[in-house]
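Backbone-to-sequence.
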C-alpha cells in the first residue's frame, strides 16, 4: 500500500514539473489517501499482531 502511495507521489511530482496540474493534483490526492490507509493498517497490525495464541 505504501509502495503505491510512493508511486503516485512520484507521478504527481513529475506531472507537476511538466505543468500538468490536474494530473498532479489527482495523483497527489490518491497518494495521500493510500498513505493514510497504509498507515492505519500498519498501526492496526502492530497492535493486534503480537497476541499469544488462545487455547
Amino acid at each position: 500500500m505504501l509502495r503505491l502511495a510512493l508511486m503516485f507521489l512520484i507521478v504527481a511530482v513529475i506531472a507537476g514539473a511538466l505543468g500538468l496540474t490536474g494530473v498532479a493534483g489527482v495523483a497527489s490526492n490518491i497518494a495521500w489517501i493510500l498513505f493514510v490507509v497504509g498507515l492505519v493498517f500498519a498501526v492496526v497490525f502492530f497492535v493486534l499482531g503480537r497476541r499469544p495464541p488462545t487455547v
